[in-house]
Amino acid sequence: MSQMKDDIKEVLFDEEQIRNKIREIGKQISKDYIGKDLLLIGVLKGSVPFMADLIKEIDIPCSIDFMAVSSYGNSSTTSGVVRILKDLDFEIEGKHILIVEDIIDTGTTLRYLVDYLKGRQPASIEIASLLNKPERRMVEINAKYMGFEVPDYFLVGYGLDYSEKYRNLPYVGILKEEVYK
Ligand code: IMP
Ligand code: MG
């Protein structure tokens, strides 16, 4: 059995770069939401490492919840159809919502989620995404907190998967084409 790192063409962001970036974002969120009822909503499963590290860098009270959504299929390209697999545990009316995501690619997932959650009357709704792949954008979406801009390569690690694997890599890297071609 080969090691995961043999499938990585190039590391884009290592553990230290990610840690420093998340620290900055956490500080900013702590300033922006002071005195507000903040609820972070992680999009399963890709946001799990980011969510876990981000909340430790936020030093104001906040709650967390998770949603699971799926675009049909599990190929390396998204289909554009979004389906809710797990909804929130609690009401969000009057709360300040921050959706936590691993990457904004076409924008389809977050566009759908933002519109869906807006219908429940939160006080505000914003997005924190670790990565942003602007070249692939198909719908408009604005993230208040964005970690790194990335080129149009298929990435894995730090939550990002290929066929549910590689999420546990502590860094973000480009997956070798021969792995998925
Ligand atoms: P969007 O709806 O096209 O913005 O896609 C969002 C979702 O697609 C992300 O939450 C990821 O799960 C997945 N995704 C997009 N780009 C990549 C990538 O480069 N590697 C792994 N997953 C990706
Ligand atoms: Mg995802």
From TrEMBL:
Cofactor(s) needed: Mg(2+)
Key words of the record: Cytoplasm, Glycosyltransferase, Magnesium, Metal-binding, Nucleotide-binding, Purine salvage, Transferase
Domain Phosphoribosyltransferase stretches: 15-162
Any GO MF annotation of the entry: glycosyltransferase activity
Annotated InterPro entries: HGPRT, Hxn_phspho_trans, PRTase_dom
Pfam families for the chain: Pribosyltran (PF00156)
Catalytic activity entry: GMP + diphosphate = guanine + 5-phospho-alpha-D-ribose 1-diphosphate; IMP + diphosphate = hypoxanthine + 5-phospho-alpha-D-ribose 1-diphosphate
Pathway: Purine metabolism; IMP biosynthesis via salvage pathway; IMP from hypoxanthine: step 1/1; Purine metabolism; GMP biosynthesis via salvage pathway; GMP from guanine: step 1/1
Location within or outside the cell: Cytoplasm
Entry's EC annotation: 2.4.2.8
Family label: Belongs to the purine/pyrimidine phosphoribosyltransferase family.
Role: Purine salvage pathway enzyme that catalyzes the transfer of the ribosyl-5-phosphate group from 5-phospho-alpha-D-ribose 1-diphosphate (PRPP) to the N9 position of the 6-oxopurines hypoxanthine and guanine to form the corresponding ribonucleotides IMP (inosine 5'-monophosphate) and GMP (guanosine 5'-monophosphate), with the release of PPi.
Protein name: Hypoxanthine phosphoribosyltransferase
Organism: Clostridium mobile
Lineage start: Bacteria, Bacillati, Bacillota, Clostridia, Eubacteriales
Gene behind this protein: hpt
